[in-house]
Amino acid sequence: MPARTHPTRPEPSGVDVRLPWWAVALPAVAFAVLLLLIAGPGQAQAATGESATGRLLHHLVELAIR
Length: 66
Prior knowledge:
This protein is mainly α. Helix content is 50%, strand content 0%. The chain has 2 helices and no strands. The chain has helices spanning 21-39, 52-65. The longest helix is centred in the middle third of the chain and has 19 residues, at 21-39.
């Protein structure tokens, strides 16, 4: 007894994707806010002492020398 074959669906020729307005607006607004936070001078104070990045680099150099 032969097995039934299911008809295959034709592949769509083009993709039709519709996004709501907020799916584009929210990432754009979030990007702009983060860019302003990074670029804005704000009330930054000079750090005193050695930074964590400096200590890490110092340890990496010591390990590389050994």
